[in-house]
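Bench log, entry 3. Co-assembly request; chain sequences pasted below exactly as received.
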Amino acid sequence: MDLGIAGKRALVCASSKGLGLGCAQVLANAGVNLILNARGADALAVEAEHIRTTCGVDVETVCADITSREGQYRVNVVAAGIDILVTNAGGPPAGIWSDWSREDFESAINANMLTPIAMMQAHLPSMIERKWGRVVNITSQSVKAPIPSLGLSNTARTGLTGFVAGVSRQVAPDGVIINNLLPGIHATERSHYLDGAAAKMEGLTIEAIKLRRESSIPARRYGTTGEFGAICAFLCSEHAGFIVGQNILVDGGGVNVTL
Ligand code: NAP
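Structure output for the full assembly:
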């Protein structure tokens, strides 16, 4: 399917690895020019060059912490006038309710709620002016089915979801489409970290935890970054103009809900 977005320009935040990189790769396959971002310079440079040579699109990189105001400013200078914004950042640490201090909550809320809100506030005005824009926020299945050990994530992402519910309907009349994409378990460094944290907490091997988590998913496997990226790219496409303010699970059936 032609996504109808070749030649457009996208910023994908936190995109040198994992889900962000998966989104960037599929957008590039659709002919979208990219701005990639991460804190670490090495993986960012390697992946940017790989995408340039395999897809033939322009790829700019901004090495910055997207959760800091200074990082957002530097990214936004390069990304001025983008057509597509994919917000993303690292997830907060796992634990139990009594572990988390006020500072931990502030950090999670900054990374997974205030940062995507700030990025939308920075780029929505020019999208509205040009009467076309697409925003996909990478959130989590924990929005639909809270994960007890990820209380920091549950808290921050629920706030973002509430904000998006309103703003997506306010900007849709101007051709700007915002949706949230909710990953279930995908094979990335983050899921490997979470498997490791569970293994430590329960005194089991990481392989045992992974097998148990895989068998809890009706698809009986972790998702791939490629299939996640493909759905993100569709939501950024010309064809997604009538999908507004949705929270779309990509989880192999892991969350047992109908709505
Ligand atoms: P990942 O494999 O750990 O990759 C994270 C990417 O984001 C890396 O490129 C990392 O590069 C970059 N990054 C992290 N913090 C950043 C920051 N402050 N500023 C700029 N770049 C940053 O993680 P993932 O699995 O793709 O997860 C992405 C998001 O989806 C996370 O919020 C995670 O909680 C959520 N999620 C993931 C899963 C899953 O199963 N994978 C499930 C539900 C939700 P640098 O470290 O070099 O900055």
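The two ends are 27 Å apart (CA to CA). Strands lie at 9-12, 33-38, 59-63, 84-87, 133-138, 176-183, 247-250.
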